[in-house]
Amino acid sequence: MPRKQQYSIGELSQLCNVSKKALRFYDKIGLISSLRHDYNNYRMYTHDELLLVPVLKYYKQMGFKLDEMRRFISGRNGNVYSALRAAFEQKLDELHKAQIELRRCEESVRDWQDLIREAETVIAENVHEVSVKYVENVKLLFQEQPFDGDIKSAIINLNFMNYVEKTNNAITGPVYIHFSSMKDRLEGKAQTIRIMQRVLEPGGGGGRVDFGGCMMASCYHVGPQESIKETYERCLTWIRRHGYAMGEDCYERYVTDYWTTSNSDCHVTELMVKVVRIMPERHGEEKA
């Protein structure tokens, strides 16, 4: 490119692929200064000002702000390299934190997408069979609360969300509720429950509890919570017929719920009950 003594704002804009509006703003804040002719007041730029633009664009690529760029370029901070090194170290720290936050966001979105796919499959394939499976152990953030039968408020739980924020955590994946009494759950009676959810790393404070690490009977319930008793009864009948013992408590894993859609007909809940085999399966009886 032939070197010129001066460049108009249009030429500078075209050569550096920067808008005239941006160049006027840089001029206004003293980042790239123009020369003004008395007779027409046109902005004109020297070759040195032209060469400043790629430097600014590179700083912008690294995420530096305009006032930071101005300090770097002026070189009036005493020890120039010390000031630059400190600024770069601060920027690296900011970028590291941003990467952590971005990974958290990505993991949360993927987890939710997986739950939606699971719900779609359950509904499309009409998955309603009861089965026994080994559930991998996972540590979950938890909070114990009284339960008065309002399942919607238990799932979209304001107290638990405040607890998550207070303990400096970020959560992902499905909400789990541990009901201390399956009988009271079926009868709609008050009881103590445990709200649980997985924490994104790095985690904060708060209590953790182990979930899983055992065999559990599992069954999907599709539809509103008002009809979940029928699914429980079918699940419990299957457990007894197949020679399993169970405790008094149970878990519900909310695959899709009020967090996802207000249409309760599309809600999918996984019922989970700890079981232990106590006798051989009864042959000759119809399996549920």
Automatic annotation (TrEMBL):
Gene3D superfamilies: 1.10.1660.10, Regulatory factor, effector binding domain. Residues 88-122 form a coiled coil. It comes from the Bacteria. It comes from Mailhella massiliensis. Keywords: Coiled coil, DNA-binding. Residues 6-75 form the HTH merR-type domain. InterPro entries: DNA-bd_dom_put_sf, GyrI-like, MerR-type_HTH_dom, MerR_fam, Reg_factor_effector_dom_sf. One of its GO terms (molecular function) is DNA-binding transcription factor activity. This is MerR family DNA-binding transcriptional regulator.
